[in-house]
Design brief:
This protein has 133 residues and is an alpha+beta fold. The chain has helices at 2-11, 116-132, and strands spanning 17-22, 26-37, 43-56, 64-75, 80-89, 95-100, 109-110.
């Protein structure tokens, strides 16, 4: 009974976003309360990008967004990742566009030294290991 109660409480935990990187015009935060484990020891983690100025959804688009949340799968042992979905939000926090990559189209990519994904890989893999325990 206590185990079920503990699980119910943790399931309703509010998202907690921790800043993991700061750019000139944006900050990137990781949702430290949610990790979704998938087969093969891999896991999904959410990252939120907050921009100082509204960004066009596409080069010719009238739709602008101020933040986006990406769900990224990580294979920490092999230093690989793949983005599974992204939701874009306007300045008021209202979703303006969501995209999900079909399972068959998800391509694993290697993390390049010095690249942005390397800056996200470390915090994500530490969180995954922490939640795994």
């Amino acid at each position: 009974m206590l185990l079920l109660l503990t699980h119910a409480i943790s399931a309703h935990q509010k998202d907690k976003w921790e800043r993991v990187y700061t750019l000139e015009d944006a900050t990137i935060a990781m949702n430290s309360t949610k990790v979704e484990f998938i087969e093969g020891g891999m896991a999904r983690v959410q990252f939120r990008w907050n921009f100082s100025k509204a960004q066009p959804l596409e080069a010719s688009s009238e739709i602008k967004y101020k933040s986006r949340v990406e769900v990224i799968e990580f294979n920490c042992d092999r230093r690989r990742y793949r983005i599974t979905s992204a939701t874009f939000f306007d300045a008021r926090g209202k979703p303006v566009f969501t995209t999900e990559v079909e399972e068959r189209d998800r391509e694993w990519r290697g993390v390049k030294a010095g690249g942005m994904m390397e800056r996200l890989l470390g915090p994500a893999c530490r969180l995954i290991e922490e939640k795994r325990r």
